[in-house]
User: Fold this.
Amino acid sequence: MSDTRRLPALDSIVQDLCYTFRTLRRDAGFTTFAVLIVGLGIGASATVFSVVDTLLLRPLPFHEPERLVWLANHDTSGLSGQTTQVGHLLDLRELNRSFSDLAGYFAFYGVGDNLLIGQGEPERLSGVPVTGNFFQVLGVQPQIGRLFTAEECKWHGPKAVLLSHGLWARRFGSDPAIAGRKLTINDDPVTVAGVLPASFDLASVFAPGSRFDLYFPFPLSAETNRQGNTMAIIGRLKPGVTIGSARAELKTLAGQIMRAHPERNDFEGKITPLAEHVSGRIRPALLVLAGAVGVVMLIVCANLSNLLLARTATRQKEIAIRTALGAGRGRLIRQMLTEGVALSCCGAILGVILAAGGTHILASLEAIGIPLLGSVRTDATVLAFCLMAAVLTGVVFGLAPALQVPANTLHDALKDTARGSTAGKGRNWIRSALVVSEIAFACVLLVGAGLLVRSFLRVLDVDLGFHPERAAAVRVDPDSSYSTQAQLNAYIDDVLLRVRAVPGIAAAGLTDALPLGRNRSWGAPAKGQVYP
Assistant:
């Protein structure tokens, strides 16, 4: 009995869809324009949603990321304020009761500091030293080979390296027998311990805009402790331990450790959920961007509602005749909503294509320091968002024309448009309201865009203290054959002479740190001045 009742309803829906596509095909100009508007709106919305979903909604790509926290030294910005001395890390490991483990990486790694020779052309690679338990704390296992051994994590222990998946695929052709092979890095033989999985990208989380090719073991020893604040620390909370209780314990331990070791650097200890540390700073900007895209979608809905209202006005005789032939008001409203949803779904297909291209472009932008940007994709979640946006958009912009379907007779409908007008008075106020809302939303976007452009121009106008125009940098490292300072000086003088002799070179100089390139924020003291 229930099946027989469903069949007429299903047949009715199929009839509405067939009629919808016939009418849209007849009015190809209107259909094309409507699909383009919806496609652009949904494409922009889906692209922004992809970024928001990756950075704010999804968990970090680690095992049980909700238990991972960031341990900073002070609240101050800069590496020296965020990092901690090795001795403090070792004491925290031993004394705490809130963490299942603590790990860290050497925060003052250099970009391109590692020279790989052999295996083809020499290549400069970026590597970061990590503690021996770093990958275990994150819950990351190598795709090939093993992690670092205890011996390799000692001072002057056997040299070993873990390769990133990208370097392994690009430089070594995804050789499955790479584990155990010897590589020559910085003139030293180094054993390849293993290869990390493609899903692991430490730089995108902790150093967006950078790329890590290699991972070395960092020894936690008296020698590294003397280097000062160098360790960026992460911790994994024990099951059931809250952030609040861990903060209270860390505050107590910080005071206890400082009293026991006054010779060390200061340590305060600030705990932040790792997800908040990674994306907390850009959360307001992303929410504002999402709000702006939402306003764009409201403008799209208002614009298309106006178009459908105008189109409905030209179809009043058709609608009135269908009413006279027995079509109920509910059936006519459903037909109008079906047309709106069909239009928006066609636009959503275009929107998905635009979103896929937009996310691909965003993911390939290496010059933008946004965490996890490289992992932004158009996946099943984004497709579901597009489908939901299409249905909601179709209902919203199809609702106003649907509610204007006349419930009167053919005579009343014809009388409403008898003098050549395109719409009755009952529809004028709705169209006026839609126009007013479009202008209001557009003004909001225009003012916001103007403020953004003004802020951007002010940022571009900041004096950098140097002129990067027409400047280039080339890294030069003398090898171990230049053993004395005199030999190094002669080598450097020769390099400068050769560079200055190149046609087109106006000037050449030498430095150990490019502007904004390294941690050089201590300043230069003046003779005779007293500083706090």
Remarks:
- The radius of gyration is 32 Å.
- Residues 417-423 have pLDDT under 50 and may be disordered.
